[in-house]
Structures are given as structure tokens and as C-alpha cells.
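Students often ask why inverse folding is considered easier than folding. One informal answer: many sequences map to the same fold, so there is more than one right answer. In these notes we will look at a single instance of the problem. The structure comes first.
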């Protein structure tokens, strides 16, 4: 349970961080409940983030959070890159057109 509280606190800190100088927040929302959370952020430089998380097996020894989300940003080359991900008991699993795909075993 301590791990879950720490993870939720870290999520709150990352979403509360101010954008870089000269960048304005266009949209920001968050909803945190005891067993789930969601947040979204969009800034004037083309960056966006969104994530939904849910507590699984609450109160059990194997309690953990499953998070699904995405983030996008405009890189120095002018292209917008998007990463979709799941973070669960199997670790962080990102997917994006610009990311290498591991070979199938």
C-alpha cells in the first residue's frame, strides 16, 4: 500500500511541474480517487500527456497499479512523436511508430 501511495504522489508531482519558460498550459485536468486516477495535459508547444491508472488487487500483497496512457511532443526535426504505453505487472511497455520493435521469439 505504501508503494501505491508513493506512485500516486509521484504522478501528482509530475503533472504539477510547470512547463518550460514561454510555454503555456492550454488544458490540464486530473481526477484522483482511492482506487484510480486520470490526468491530461496539453501545452502550447505541442506537448500532450494523458494517463489513466487503476489499483488492482487492493489490500492484497500483490496490489499494484495498471496505467495506460500516451504522450506526444514536437521534436527538433519538426515532427510530432507519440508514444502509447501500458505500465503493469509486466513493466513499462511503450509503442510508437518511431520506436524499434523487438523481434518475435
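Output (designed amino acids):
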Amino acid at each position: 500500500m505504501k508503494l501505491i501511495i508513493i506512485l500516486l504522489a509521484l504522478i501528482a508531482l509530475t503533472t504539477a511541474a510547470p512547463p518550460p519558460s514561454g510555454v503555456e498550459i492550454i488544458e490540464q485536468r486530473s481526477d484522483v480517487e482511492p482506487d484510480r486516477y486520470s490526468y491530461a495535459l496539453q501545452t502550447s508547444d505541442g506537448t500532450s500527456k494523458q494517463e489513466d491508472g487503476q489499483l488492482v488487487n487492493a489490500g492484497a500483497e500483490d496490489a499494484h497499479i495498471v496505467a495506460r496512457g500516451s504522450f506526444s511532443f514536437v521534436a527538433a526535426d519538426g515532427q510530432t512523436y507519440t508514444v502509447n504505453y501500458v505500465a503493469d505487472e509486466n513493466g513499462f511497455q511503450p509503442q510508437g511508430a518511431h520506436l524499434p520493435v523487438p523481434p518475435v521469439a
